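Inverse folding, one chain.
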């Protein structure tokens, strides 16, 4: 009795296969789209080209492994450094077949299901400054998947302009602990120097910290923690010879949006007085500094006699 249903089941399965309800073959229409981020790139800095491949075929079919061959070419103003996943992690869904620095070719290492997308990111560096009004073209091509492939979405273009590096933007932030003092009190001063313009700073940086006779500060060149805050005192040179400022310099390069810090410790001795003491820091020198209007910062100590 049970075996009499086998031919009927087989017939239904065969019919569904022919009607396309069960995925077979490979995608006949996969689109490619790219966008350059940012569209303007300072010289020697890096940007990305986002690449998206989407299976838009109207039938329920997938593109098998090694069927998609995206090729992305860039202008002579940038160089291709590598390829990653869209989130910046190591590339997983594609294999890089070749990379000349101007043209990169890849192959999909996983299938691309119907109505799904695969993405990756190309890392580029600005190498040549464009003349005014000119940009470097970026072109993406996707080799046809089958003879029925629709070619209108097998290419995509974007562009990137490389401009002169505007230089870093350095700004100090001053921290004083404690900010309220009663009589003679130990004081910690920490200065963070931040880069705000997405540009690596590699020039000598000089920071001046205002001196005051009521507060004598010492610099420990091996300290890595001052007042509970992380510092890199070993990267700084300390000059105590100026009567108006403590002067600190560093040749330590730090990355775009990076931070480098130093700290000093001392004792506040206001005597039998009350008042407010301002402790200010100034970034006094860095070649190519973009913005000089955020180069100073100050904190105050409110002190009282016992």
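Residues assigned per position:
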């Amino acid at each position: 009795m049970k075996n009499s249903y086998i031919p009927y089941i087989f017939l239904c399965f065969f019919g569904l296969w022919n009607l396309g309800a069960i995925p077979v073959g490979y995608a006949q229409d996969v689109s490619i789209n790219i966008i350059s981020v940012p569209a303007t790139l300072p010289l020697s800095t890096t940007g990305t080209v986002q690449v998206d491949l989407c299976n838009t075929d109207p039938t329920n079919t997938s593109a098998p492994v090694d069927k998609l061959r995206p090729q992305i070419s860039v202008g002579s103003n940038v160089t291709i450094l590598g390829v990653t996943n869209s989130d910046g992690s190591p590339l997983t869904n594609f294999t890089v077949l070749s990379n000349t620095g101007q043209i990169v070719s890849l192959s999909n290492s996983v299938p691309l299901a119907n109505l799904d997308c695969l993405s990756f990111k190309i890392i580029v560096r600005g190498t040549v400054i464009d003349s005014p009004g000119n940009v470097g073209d970026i072109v993406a091509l996707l080799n046809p998947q089958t003879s029925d492939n629709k070619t209108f979405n097998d290419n995509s273009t974007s562009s990137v302009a490389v401009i002169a590096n505007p230089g870093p933007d350095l700004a100090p932030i001053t921290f004083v602990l404690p900010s309220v003092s009663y009589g003679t009190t130990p004081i910690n001063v920490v200065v963070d120097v931040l880069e705000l313009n997405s540009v690596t700073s590699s020039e000598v940086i000089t920071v001046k910290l205002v001196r005051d006779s009521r507060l004598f500060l010492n610099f420990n060149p091996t300290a890595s923690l001052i007042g509970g805050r992380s510092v890199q005192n070993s990267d700084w040179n300390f000059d105590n010879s100026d009567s108006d400022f403590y002067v600190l310099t560093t040749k330590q390069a730090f990355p775009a949006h990076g931070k480098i810090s130093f700290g000093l410790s001392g004792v506040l001795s206001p005597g039998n007085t009350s008042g407010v003491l301002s402790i200010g820091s100034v970034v006094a020198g860095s070649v190519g500094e973009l913005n000089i209007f955020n180069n100073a910062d100050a904190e105050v100590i409110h002190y009282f006699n016992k």
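The chain has a mean pLDDT of 86. Helices lie at 6-19.
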